[in-house]
Amino acid sequence: MAAAAAAAVGGPQPPQPELPAPGLALDKAATAAHLKAALSRPDNRAGAEELQALLERVLSAERPLAAAADGEEAAAAGGGGGPGAAEEEALEWCKCLLAGGGGYDEFCAAVRAYDPAALCGLVWTANFVAYRCRTCGISPCMSLCAECFHQGDHTGHDFNMFRSQAGGACDCGDSNVMRESGFCKRHQIKSSSNIPCVPKDLLMMSEFVLPRFIFCLIQYLREGYNEPAADVPSEKDLNKVLQLLEPQISFLEDLTKMGGAMRSVLTQVLTNQQNYKDLTSGLGENACAKKSHEKYLIALKSSGLTYPEDKLVYGLQEPSAGTSTLAVQGFAGATGTLGQLDSSDEEDQDGSQGLGKRKRVKLSSSTKDQSIMDVLKHKSFLEELLFWTIKYEFPQKMVTFLLNMLPDQEYKVAFTKTFVQHYAFIMKTLKKSHESDTMSNRIVHISVQLFSNEELARQVTEECQLLDIMVTVLLYMMESCLIKSELQDEENSLHVVVNCGEALLKNNTYWPLVSDFINILSHQSVAKRFLEDHGLLVTWMNFVSFFQGMNLNKRELNEHVEFESQTYYAAFAAELEACAQPMWGLLSHCKVRETQEYTRNVVRYCLEALQDWFDAINFVDEPAPNQVTFHLPLHRYYAMFLSKAVKCQELDLDSVLPDQEMLMKLMIHPLQIQASLAEIHSNMWVRNGLQIKGQAMTYVQSHFCNSMIDPDIYLLQVCASRLDPDYFISSVFERFKVVDLLTMASQHQNTVLDAEHERSMLEGALTFLVILLSLRLHLGMSDDEILRAEMVAQLCMNDRTHSSLLDLIPENPNPKSGIIPGSYSFESVLSAVADFKAPVFEPGGSMQQGMYTPKAEVWDQEFDPVMVILRTVYRRDVQSAMDRYTAFLKQSGKFPGNPWPPYKKRTPLHPSYKGLMRLLHCKTLHIVLFTLLYKILMDHQNLSEHVLCMVLYLIELGLENSAEEESDEEASVCGPERCHDSWFPGSNLVSNMRHFINYVRVRVPETAPEVKRDSPASTSSDSLSSLHNSGTAQVFSLVAERRKKFQEIINRSSSEANQVVRPKTSNKWSAPGSAPQLTTAILEIKESILSLLIKLHHKLSGKQNSYYPPWLDDIEILIQPEIPKYNHGDGITAVERILLKAALQSRMNKRIIEEICRKVTPPVPPKKITAAEKKTLDKEERRQKARERQQKLLAEFASRQKSFMETAMDVDSPENDIPMEIATAEPQVSEAVYDCVICGQSGPSSEDRPTGLVVLLQASSVLGQCRDNIEPKKLPITEEEQIYPWDTCAAVHDVRLSLLQRYFKDSSCLLAVSIGWEGGVYVQTCGHTLHIDCHKSYMESLRNDQVLQGFSVDKGEFTCPLCRQFANSVLPCYPGSNVESNLWQRPSNKSIQDLIKEVEELQGRPGAFPVSISSETNLSKEMESVMKDIKNTTQKKYRDYSKTPGSPDNDFLFMYSVARTNLELELIHRGGNLCSGGASTAGKRSCLNQLFHVLALHMRLYSIDSEYNPWRKLTQLVEEMNSQQGNEEQQPEVPILYHDVTSLLLIQILMMPQPLRKDHFTCIVKVLFTLLYTQALVALSVKCNEEDRLAWKHTGALKKNACDAEKSYEVLLSFVISELSKGKLYHEEGTQECAMVSPIAWSPESMEKYLQDFCLPFLRITSLLQHHLFGEDLPSCQEEEEFSVLSSCLGLLPTFYQTEHPFISASCLDWPVPAFDIISQWCFEINSFTERHAEQGKALLIQESRWKLPHLLQLPENYNTIFQYYHRKTCSVCTKVPKDPAVCLVCGTFVCLKGLCCKQQSYCECVLHSQNCGAGTGIFLLINASVIIIIRGHRFCLWGSVYLDAHGEEDRDLRRGKPLYICKERYKVLEQQWISHTFDHINKRWGPHYNGL
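-> structure tokens emitted (1893 positions)
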């Protein structure tokens, strides 16, 4: 094949007469078939030439892209068919040729049949939803596509779903990356044997055609690339070329999807070197090919690369290990390139001269391996394709094509090698790129597929020097942004560091390369190569040293820094990613003894690098003051490898430690960081801005701490264990600048620290010592113990959710791994130390998540304040932990007062670190402790309880860790050692504790009280003489001590003999005696540590002789020392515990303690303090106490306020609410009195100054969502399930109204029904009242208040001034007296006929109203304005149902429907029935009474014509029944039996003058009940079948003449049936009717039940109405007796009714006129209608009145079922997959959130839907976030999630991707808020949505 191709290019072109014009597809097919036949012959040379010629013509690169190459004008001129057409043509040809004359689709299918691939290999791009299973993954980067995941079995595994950031590929079937048990059904190892062999001729054409096709593509890429001009990015041009190439690349991508057979052909083509050489060398006469080859060479050169044949000879010899190091020492020598500005990188030029920019440094590159960086030679298509892919900055299509090929093993290896070969080039392109983020993602998309495979990584490491390339490339990359380090010695420093302000670091541009490096180091075989290669280690340490000391902070001493730099983010990220993570990667392979050698290598080169660093920064022995860098990666590498060596490799620590002098240097910078932390927390760095606090917090934050503070402290522990303890302790106090404070004198001068910072710095120093001495993280704790300690510390600070715990517990930060170390042990430790608190739902709306809280025994035994202090980012967390500890002790009754942090036993030290405990047994520390105890006892200033606590802690640590054999040593201590300071005889704390110190000589300021006291000669001579006897008084200076030790150590290391006397770096540090006005005084002390402790006990307890040695009473104590009573307590307990331990340790101590106690000395009065001083001290103390008191008060106030808010805001349980101010009927009060919550006055509501209720009006469609089914509808989760809203209450009512409007008179229809099922206006109040004029001024002030509120004042919204509940209107209270209502309620003895007449007369009287409308009073104005508000609350379409727009009937209908809506909703809030009775909670804050007044006032403006008034039809017989039949042409009125009785009730009541008389009300109810009952009988008769009807007709007729016939349902039913039979209602019941006939046999019981159920809704509403109008309580009852109880309560039941025999609903009837007459009149109307419309007539009679409560849709158990269906579902409007899909939880509609595609008239889809579905209220589940969002009018809020994971946590935005399950309680809360319309009150965070959702 190759030969044929060569002939075709090189040889003469054969004539081509027989080639047809490329027009018809038919010809193409024929040509293809012909060529295929020619090539199948044994001698196929002629055929091959012919094919080549054809391809040459079809695929000529000149036409299509000439345009793009010459520039845009030409492209425009090309016009018409242009490049596009030619490309189409070429692709068509290729498809035909590949198929060899057959159809292309059949060809694809045929090739697919031979797919042996057992890998999935599906490639995806960013934002794709994929899965990762840690249980099945071998490599941490393993990922699966959704299909493979769901088809595999991962039950009970640790998996999560994630959104891909950079793109990825499915690993199913690849056993290098995941375990086979996790493969899905499709990829479970197909054995390649059962796949047939591919027939040769199937792919023969492909082998000929594809090389040309790919070459053509490469030519396009060469043509299209123009080097970007000077600085202008040419992304536009590149994108244009790529767009033109889109079809070609897609074609290749489709080929890869044909499966394994086609992939192997492509692999052959892409990797065949001969093919490439023949086609691309650009030799032949083809001018075009030449030109393209030249462009290729230009592109190579411009990339700073060379083509080896250009004979540019580099020193390509392999450098030896020694030279590849970056010789820092070389700088000072020959090269001398240090300060020179770098001008070779063109993109850096602009910024480098900029002011304030530090000079860049360029390293001498003479010694580095140049070939890695600069030489590229392409030998195959694949290599050049990758080259262009990089050049064009990784276009997505190309990346996908290259990755789609990966399932082919041979290709995978070739491609990986090619990728490595281009690695340096990738780095250069990435640095220049403007889109570095996108490019980074694409690079990682590729590299993660290649380097996660250990086998492949190992092969490339061995064959292609992968490690050398990576390290060199990283080094090169960082070299471009080096600057001179200013640490220590600014002028002469030779050290260079990265500049954190550079884009390279600021934008994390380096992360793809670093992440690849971390990825390959996770493979053991690769990491071992790295650790064995000395040259590599040297280079790597050089790389790490670039970060050593970066981002240096200098303390601002004078004024605040102008500009706060935020470079520290970049610095911390860089150290973590570029230094720490590779370190953890390497450490993970040093776990066993056999790997000792590796550790030795790393430690050795690390120390060399450190030594170089110290030399480069010119470091001697003192750090420069006021400087700190948090970045010491070299120190940390050293520390971590030491720790590993001791812990896992059993290495002898001393064999890897340097000499003493190096140790002293090593400890300086980490110690400097610890001191700076204390300074930052003491506010000494405030002038540096907030960012310095940010650094201090990041340094200890959970993701950084184990790569930063932990290694630092460990390194200090190692140094402390090996250095002289006195030297170490004095260094600590000197670093913390508190040396001057440690004097016995009551006054001192501190030369280096302001007095206000002294206390906190001293606390800092002592706390640091405590941490240093008690932390065991690296000194002997096992991994599980560490995990437990970390977990306990976090839980003690606060209760935590599972995910925040996972996040807060430092893991070995290899985040690539995503594997939590030992997640199994994580769960088991968690269950051991914590209890799970299930999520709670407070009715007030705050929803907690599932939390873990420490078990009681953890508080009791494991609470460790030291660990808490180490791990807190915010200082308040320490306080929080102590508060929780205190609360536990109080609750469990262990300790009532304010406890001190408990002392916790430590894990035993690893033997290698035993030396650390010498710190506790050195004289320096003992002197410090003694001094501090003394100062505290004497009340010197600047000491705190915290200081005492730490001092006692250190003493206790010393007692716990005392070496018993010390007593022998003491004797042998040599003489001179003892004389230099005779404070203490030895160094053992146990014996030093009892040593009495008599006199101390101190330097004090002359003003100090100590000086004056010594003036009388006699006493002084006296005391002096005794002083001579006991040797001199003790003098002590820490600094002098430290100098001496330092000199000794230096002298000891003989190598340094020539530098014995090191110069002091500064004068400032000399002994603090240098200040001239100090004089010496001698103090008489006569105390020992023991005696000080006992006196402290007296002082703390406030009683003299309070300490009594416990062993005198109970000798047992000395035998079993662990006494629980000492575990928890305050300072007194701590002192007792220490004294007991001291007594235990030595008999001498025991005796001395007893002696001291026997002497019973009163505590020494602090006689050395003058009155003046005492005053200042007192002032200080008083201030401190006042501050504490103030804090306490504030806290108390806050908690009181909180508890008030909680009770006031508790919307769902108003029992504990502020009592309702609306007075209920009390006979002695004459008029209702209201309190105004604004002005605070109380009084009646009057016409001139009306009072109003604060109300919230909102449109509601909740009622419309009622269905007749108890089961709520399910949310659809498959295409088959759909929700149709036909059976909702709203739909049924709509159908009914439109049916009536079709056949009857419009005005009459509008009185026959209620509207407001959808978009009805609901009125609710918080129960507070205010004067309406007060309210107006309140609104005015809100309008002027420009603070951003969550509501819009212009729309009339406000919050109630008292309870802050949301409201938007004020409902005027009707002025009226309560006494009146009592008169109205007296039952009268009038007959029903009289009452009926009265009702009619009252209705006819226009506005017989105490307030005449004509006189415009304030009250009537307000009533009108509130009516306007009510109308405007809902949309026009929910108000206007009339056919004639603007008809008064419409308003009439709307108004009584408002009353209906409010009554119905209250009924729903009571659970749909009135069984609970009582003035329910709703009654307390109900505003129905006031609302009725407003509605009635307006209803009476519209009087109904007396002949249309339904009241007549109900209560009078019409004389001539046929009169109506005459006027046929006019539409008839609605027959009375079609009227909705509840609507009639409201019309009748609201038409009456208010207030209404009780007997009128009862009369109306009685009359209406007769109609209702008749309707029930009619409906019943229609429901049953013919035989039943005949039977009933018969039985009833027999009883018709009985005395109570009018009250017997059988009689009435039989009469109804006989009347209606006269019409056509029961006719034509043919077969189709049988379906609706209920099959049940009607028994008298079931009929009675049916009739009662039919009437109940009316009775309930009527009872509620009566309750609100007349204030009578509702009786409670059982469900089965609800009917009888309500009817008697309404006065329907005669009082003498006997309850013995079963209750019959008919006995409530009270007919105003003879029953049979009125019924036959009503039936006549029906018959006359059914004459014409029998069907509709029947439909209108069967009313469904038994609606069940409304529900939200029922959601599936598992969130994944929703997610999988909806997140890929297309929107029905725009047919795209929405970016933010959402689904309505009320009706199940699928909508695009924020989708501009579905915007209508500037409303986005969700807002629009909320108006159509919920009249302005929408509840949406956001599919991609699992949260629910509420839209209410113009505002929205995030409600939270109803799906929680196994640990009771939300997963907003599905970040964690854990499986989520429905939380039924939360969903119930949501539904409750929806039904009770309380979203506005309960949810606090509302914002405007501007119609953009």
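The chain is about 50% helix and 5% strand.
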